């Protein structure tokens, strides 16, 4: 009987020791995660819920906020500049995202070829993405200058009259797209990683069947690269809809010519920090969030029809 009691006591002590150890481990884990949790609450959660509240108020930072309900949203839908900024942004995204994917995939496939100086060429194509946006802006303003820019000078040499580029409402957004296509280094790296992940067995089987390079490209490479294309598409759409720095630096915040480069984020910034209409700008931010989420959901729903993975039947 005493032996049974002793065994029970030993088990109870071991159980308490295990529970105590688990508690210490849990506390240590929380302690290590605490800086991240504080950062999440302070820099993400608090601004998020604050902007939701301020979007329903009349708030100019200086004086206390005044609750006005959905008046900011109603005013926005009757604001011509709001619609112009949204239209410009969507038009830019529709041009920039597909072209960025096509150019990115093409360049990645070329840079994946086993040629002499492959590493050097990859470095050259990646370097522009390291340049500051302001430096890129100054460079392209000079290249696309209608009077003495190198682009129009080259076009003149081959008998073509160059457009006004950034000074022309028709060509201003295409000019911006051209600038962004010059800094595709990050997406090219992702495409290269995806290309190198494709198993060589597919190409060997295609060679046995007598497939040429074009057939292998459209029946093996591109289908198996669609997961990477899909990722870059999502990220590209989000970035394009939030485009701010380049058009703001090009136009000094005016959106000229004729507000053709007045992007949604620029108008949001102007309302928040120039006109001090923080509640109005918060409402704009939430509308942008909803638009981005809707487009992302649509792309996610459609991905099952065109995104293929290795090993899928």
TrEMBL record:
TM stretches of this protein: 30-49, 90-111, 123-143, 175-194, 222-241, 278-300
Statement: the UniProt record of this protein carries the keyword Endoplasmic reticulum: no
Stored PROSITE patterns: ABC_TM1
Alphabetically ordered keywords of this record: Cell membrane, Membrane, Transmembrane, Transmembrane helix, Transport
Subcellular location: Cell membrane
Matches recorded under InterPro entries: ABC_transporter_permease, MetI-like, MetI-like_sf
The keyword Cell wall biogenesis/degradation is annotated on this UniProt entry: no
Membrane-related topology note: Multi-pass membrane protein
Taxonomic superkingdom: Bacteria
Signal sequence region: none
Record Gene3D superfamilies: MetI-like (1.10.3720.10)
Main localization category: membrane
Residue stretches making up the ABC transmembrane type-1 domain: 86-299
Protein family: Belongs to the binding-protein-dependent transport system permease family.
Name of the featured protein: Sugar ABC transporter permease
Native source species: Metabacillus rhizosphaerae
